[in-house]
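> run fold Integral membrane protein
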Amino acid sequence: MGSIVWKALAASSAVVATLVATKVADQIWKTTGQDDIDPADPESPILQAVAYAALTGLIAAAIKTYTTRKAAQYYENSAGHLPKGLETSH
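> ok
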């Protein structure tokens, strides 16, 4: 396996994280009783827009970390070593 495969795995984990984070954030937002919000809409209250953006960012970062770690684990199991740049010297 080469760096192209790793880049594809890492990129797909970022895309998955973004898509899932938005869906999860929307559900959490609605569960708390908040109105639908578009953070890019200048008519949206700034505090709600920032809170929603922070929630989405937190969820996206957590999911991206998880999916990237799983992708690295898959890469290591398939190639016998971690992707270049993730190798550690223990």
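The two ends are 23 Å apart (CA to CA).
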